[in-house]
Design goal:
Immunoglobulin-like, 13 helices, alpha+beta, Beta-galactosidase, Chain A, domain 5, 38 strands, TIM Barrel, binds (2R,3S,4R,5S)-2-(hydroxymethyl)piperidine-3,4,5-triol, 8-stranded parallel beta barrel
Length: 726
């Protein structure tokens, strides 16, 4: 078992192939964190709970004999509020007396093979119980009777674990949950940097690195979605850690709503890291006997640098997060009409897209926004999910038949959580959108957000979707979400439950997505939120790929894709070649090959030369699919650190294939580029597909290869494919 309990010392040890995570049940049943880091064989780590002295002003517990112990400085596994620990708390419950003193202590535990699901929430899963081991630890606040079940699951082979919490109101009084963080880790030092991903629409997930400083440092969302602006990812890494060296601890929340990732350096220079639902804007009324589940936090540790941290996330998500038919099989290469036509298209026009697509070897046509209701601009129509037959020139089934008859699959766009002010649905049900009484509703993109905390609203929307999707063969659905939540309230909830709306909205979205995936198990779902505004593991549980950004400029995409790859695998990143002005089609294709590849343009406008390039790209897509989608990513030259070039490499699991891509962002003065590959087998020999030269893995990794100077200019790029001699 990868989780052991030493009943004498009352120590839990959770091991993976590369990490150990250790905590102790201390005097008075305090749950004291001891160690998280490189794998160690023993559990003789009880001294790690001390901070070198006892600080005045820090409270201690009269019943604990150990004078050095104080809840304020001792590392804690699930710290409460207002009971001696002044650092950021993981758990705060306002009890029926009106105070929020909270303090849960160990009661009992069980350890078992496998991993339980979380009711109503996406989470990592196992197919066989031998893939993970779970510790379920019951803790209780003896004054209020509120219980917290702490779940720790260890993915032994992958160097990863997950944490989540189930709160049970085991009392006879109603309580108010104020903070239920999913994880808390107390590090012994603050000799770390914090990595986070910030951005905005069109420029998502830029990497930001800061030294930890005394006090609190927080990234979060209170937009109702995980957001373009901060991603629910954060890492704590050794100062100066690189792609290949240094301790790296990655955190990622399986949640698509308001989140918080926060680190606090305390008086003794220890660092507390918490992650979970953002307490700002959150509250939950928990009646006697009721249960509340936190979302799941994923934790990855490696001693081998930031690159290996990312690869562990990628392996973990490919195997234990992505689900369904499209998990392991090749996804269709698609063409989407949005950038070419906007909403101004006709069925006949899209049939010509499909005809050209067929000639070029593309598999699927995706009809984007504008096919329903009175949707000819973004001012109207959302919520009226009835097919605009006039625009399509017939029923949807007739239109799809025409596309399918060409040998092309068909995909469709939806924005199910939204309602236009100018829509029949809004006229019929003005109270179905999120709003608060007496306050003007902020409008964004001329639309409001539907109140998905309401079952009747969800039932109606799902019913309308089902009617359309079941009339013909729809192979793919793009689920979009184009504004954030304001004036957050629900007409269906009483005043004292309005604080629940943010979280209930997310649960409602997951409910509809769950129904959709069950009703149409073969349909590929691509998530989207004005590009990558909801690029998070919660969404990946329902949709194996997400449209990474509305920005399809290949040079700007470099930082977006590098940042996204911090924890999300290539197979999850929707990446399309578009008609944007910068760079030629070669570089557009080379950059888009990183993700789930496609086109987003009018194929009728291709020149003969462009058609030739596209046909080559289609072949490359098939040839390199496995190494990109299932291989290991090495970020070789980061556009966050180098203004001239970016380079990355995929290596197959068996190390028999490697695909190197290098993009010249701005031609540097030193034009020669010796690029050293990574992750190969030093003892294998590899053929360079382009030159037929044979090199050892050792040579390619230590000396590198010289990429050509001839013809290099701003925006040019190279792909080199290496295959081992068997
Ligand atoms: C935002 C998406 O990111 C685009 O790809 C497109 O689907 C539009 N919405 C449609 O309104």
């Amino acid at each position: 078992m990868s989780i052991a309990f030493d009943s004498e010392k009352r120590i839990f040890k959770l091991d993976t192939a590369t990490s150990s995570y250790i905590f102790q049940i201390y005097e008075q049943d305090y749950i004291v964190h001891l160690y998280y880091g490189a794998k160690i064989p023993d559990n003789n780590v009880v001294g790690l709970k001390y901070r070198g002295g006892f600080p005045s002003f820090s409270p201690n517990n009269i019943k604990v004999d150990d004078w050095m112990f104080s809840p304020d400085v001792t590392p804690m596994e699930y710290p409460g509020e207002g009971t001696g620990d002044f650092r950021i708390s993981a758990f705060a419950v306002r009890n029926s007396d009106g105070n929020n003193s909270t303090d849960v202590r160990y009661v009992s535990h069980k350890i078992y093979a496998g991993k339980p699901a979380i009711d109503g929430l996406p989470a990592l899963y196992v197919e066989n119980d031998d893939e993970a081991t779970t510790l379920e630890l019951l803790a209780e606040d003896s004054v209020t009777g509120v219980q917290a079940v702490l779940y720790f699951t260890v993915f032994e082979k992958l160097g990863a674990m997950t944490r989540s919490v189930k709160v049970i109101n085991n009392s006879d009084k109603t309580v108010q949950l104020e903070r239920v963080m999913s994880t808390c880790v107390d590090f012994h030092t603050h000799d770390y940097e914090m990595l986070t991903l910030y951005g905005r629409w069109g420029k998502e997930r830029s990497l930001e690195r800061r030294a930890l400083a005394h006090g609190r440092q927080l990234v979060s969302s209170k937009r109702g979605s995980s957001s373009h602006h901060q991603n629910p990812f954060g890492a704590i890494v050794d100062k100066g850690a690189t792609e290949d060296y240094g301790n790296a601890y990655g955190f990622n929340l399986v949640y698509s709503g308001n989140f918080a990732f926060e680190a606090e350096v305390n008086q003794f220079a220890g660092t507390r890291v918490i992650m979970g639902i953002n307490p700002e804007g959150f509250g939950w009324t928990l009646e006697p006997g009721s249960v509340f589940n936190s979302p799941e936090a994923v934790m990855v540790y490696t001693p081998d640098g930031i690159g290996e941290m990312s690869r562990i996330f990628h392996r973990l998500y490919r195997k234990h997060l992505i689900r369904g038919k499209w998990k392991d099989i090749k996804r269709p290469l698609l063409i989407n009409n949005w950038e070419a036509t906007g909403m101004d298209f006709t069925g006949d026009q899209l049939v010509t897209f499909a005809q050209r697509a067929k000639e070029l070897g593309i598999d699927m046509l995706v009809m984007d926004d504008g096919w329903f209701g009175d949707r000819n601009s973004d001012r109207s129509g959302l919520g009226d999910w009835q097919v605009n037959e006039e625009k399509l020139g017939g029923t949807l089934a007739e239109f799809v038949d025409k596309i399918n008859a060409l040998g092309i699959k068909f995909g469709i766009w939806y924005e199910p959580e939204m309602i236009s002010r100018d829509s029949n649905l809004y006229r019929a049900h003005p109270d179905w959108c999120i709003h608060v009484p007496g306050r003007e509703k902020s409008i964004a993109r001329h639309q409001y957000v539907l109140d998905y905390s309401r079952q009747d609203v969800r039932d109606y929307i799902f019913g309308e979707m089902y009617k359309v999707l079941s009339t013909c063969k729809i192979d793919y659905l793009k689920w979009d979400f184009n504004r954030n939540l304001t004036e957050v309230g629900s007409a269906a909830l009483p005043a004292d439950r309005q604080k629940e709306v943010f979280h209930r909205f997310v649960l409602g979205t997951y409910d509809v997505m769950d129904r959709l995936t069950k009703a149409f198990p073969d349909m590929l779902i691509e998530n989207c939120s004005g590009g990558g505004g909801r690029f998070d593991p919660g969404m990946l549980y329902f949709s194996p790929q997400i449209w990474t950004s509305d920005n399809t400029d290949p040079l700007e995409r470099l930082t977006i894709q590098f940042g996204t790859s911090m924890c999300y695998p290539a197979s999850t990143m929707g990446a399309h070649v578009s008609a944007c002005r910068r760079t030629g089609y070669d570089t557009k294709g080379n950059v888009a090959l990183w993700g789930s590849f496609g086109y987003e343009l009018d194929p009728n406008k291709f020149t003969d030369e462009e058609k030739r390039i596209v046909k080559r790209q289609v072949k490359e897509y098939h040839k390199y699919y496995d190494v990109i989608h299932f291989g290991d990513l090495y970020r070789l030259i980061s556009p966050f650190e180098n203004n001239n070039r970016a380079a990355w490499e995929f290596v197959s699991e068996d190390k028999n294939e490697a695909l190197l891509t290098c993009v010249v962002i701005s031609r540097p003065a030193d034009t020669a580029l010796f690029i050293k590959l990574k992750g190969l087998d030093p003892d294998k020999y590899y053929v360079d597909d382009e030159t037929d030269e044979v090199y050892s893995g050792a040579l390619l990794m230590n000396a590198g290869i010289c990429l050509p100077n001839e013809g290099v200019s701003d925006g040019s790029s190279f792909i080199r494919y290496f295959k081992s001699l068997k």
